[in-house]
Amino acid sequence: MKNQETAQAPEARVHWSSRWGFFLVTVGSAVGLGNLWKFPYMTGSNGGSAFVLVYLFCILLIGVPLLMAETLLGRRGQASPVGTMRLLVAEAGASKAWLAIGYIGIMGSFLILSFYSVVAGWVLEYTWQAAGGFAPAPKEAFGQAFSDLLANPGRLIFWHTLFMAMTAAVVLGGVTSGIERANRIMMPSLFLILLFLVGYGAFAADLPAAFRFLFHFDAAAINRSVLFAAMGHAFFTLSLGMGAIITYGSYLDRATSIPRICLQVAVADTLVALLAGLSIFAVVFAQGLEPAAGPGLLLQTLPLAFSQMPGGQVVGFLFFVLVVFAAWTSSISLLEPSVTLVVERFGLGRQVAVLLVTLGIWLLGVAVALSFNAWSGVTLFGLGFFDLLDTLTSKIMMPLAGLLIAVFTAWVMQRRHVADEIGLSGRSFSFWYRVVAFVSPVAIAIIFLNVIGILG
Ligand code: TRP
Q1: Domains of the chain (ranges plus CATH)?
Q2: The whole model's pTM is what?
Q3: What's the rounded Cα separation, in Å, for the pair 167 and 178?
């Protein structure tokens, strides 16, 4: 087993035990803080349904085609993102510059995990508090409690350390007995908890108001900032561009049909975001709270709601467990790309590689935790360390990698190799190929230029 996982020869690479296994781990990567924390507050602050409509459109037009492209690169390469690109570049006789796709992916997942883990640490703290029940208190007290947490480096670092240890523990177990097994337990549980919460929303909270808020389409509310926020989020929620999907694709066997499973992953990810949005806003509206509370929606508005609702202790605790599971399975997919690269590159065992990479990410995360308090005065380009990493990864590295992946797949790889790998034919192949060749790159270039415009 161990030999298989450390070997470099493509034919020896370990594979997920089934297509269901690949489906679960990829949904595990996709469903994360993006769905449960970012999506609801972004919807809340971007006019509700207008954002949802554009987001759904972006998922279909950019997200799904790119998810297929990234999976196919990984499966063809059967190696780390860098190893995969090395192989594909050689196969296409292309410039080594394309290895950038691999390196950006590795760097990106490394950087994202350093702050993702700190945010997941907040969620651990709130799960702990939810277990004891949130004491009823005025609104300001919940805002203050969150500010107090951010101001306390010891507590932030404690939870960040615990979360990194949880992530490393799973990845140490290897591809099938660690990563796949953890997802086989957590993802079905996550879905059951979510269904329970939506059911609770239907009976005890204001589900119709939530439904209206999310689905009453009002085209007039769509503007440029909604458009760009939605496109960026489509990348983030599907884990695109940062090596995670290439890596998971590299553990996929040749028998599985890529297009169908990628579509199913995107549907599941979107379903979770919408169901989570429904249950969260049902609670928010039932308690007469503000849907546009921004990033504090999850950690200030919801605890306040749970403290006032019948059965709030059980529901609140289950809700935060759901968020922990989602964050945990995503962070696993952010750790694995660097681990597989270190194993491949330096011939180290998985255990040593996991420890080294975890240590590096943990250290960077400590700096992120300190950026909220002791080092809050330290800024670069006017951004604190946390915002800097978030901006660098979500607004620059992700669209850039997405653009490179689309162009590489459609314009650099040989068409017959692509067709052979993706396993589509006839009209459906031409349609997908054209989207990846034209629609996705143009759409990404538009966001990208716009973001640069905003920054500059
Ligand atoms: N998709 C996850 C979320 O929605 C986050 C995530 C996991 C991610 N792996 C990624 C984002 C790779 C970008 C790239 O929370």
Answers
A1: 12-451 (1.20.1740.10)
A2: 0.94
A3: 10
> Mean pLDDT, to the nearest integer, of 391-408?
92
Distance in Å, CA 165 to ligand 1 centroid: 19
Residue nearest (by alpha carbon) to ligand 1 atom 11: 239
Mean pLDDT across 167-182: 98
Report how far ligand 1's centroid is from the alpha carbon of 233 (Å). 10
- If you take atom 12 of ligand 1, which residue's CA is the nearest one? 239
CA distance 322 to 308: 20
Dig out the tokens for 2 from the structure: 């161990």
Contact of 192 with 272, CB cutoff 8 Å: no
Interval 400-437: pLDDT, tens: 999 999 999 999 999 999 999 998 889 999 999 999 99
User: Residue 4: what pLDDT?
Assistant: 45
Residue 280 pLDDT greater than 60, yes or no: yes
Residue range 11-51, pLDDT digits in tens: 479 999 999 999 999 999 999 999 998 898 888 878 788 88
pLDDT digits (tens, 9 = 90+) for 304-345: 999 998 889 999 999 999 999 999 999 999 999 999 999 999
The per-residue pLDDT for range 119-129, each reduced to its tens digit, is 999 999 999 99
Ligand 1 is surrounded, with C-beta below 6 A, by 29-30, 32-35, 109, 112, 236-237, 239, 242, 244, 330, 333-334
**What's the 375 CA to ligand 1 centre distance in angstroms?**
26
Cα separation, 189 vs 321, whole angstroms: 10
Alpha carbon nearest to ligand 1 atom 6, residue:
239
Question: Beta-carbon neighbour count of residue 412 at 10 Å?
Answer: 16
From ligand 1's centre to the CA of 239, what distance in Å?
Answer: 4
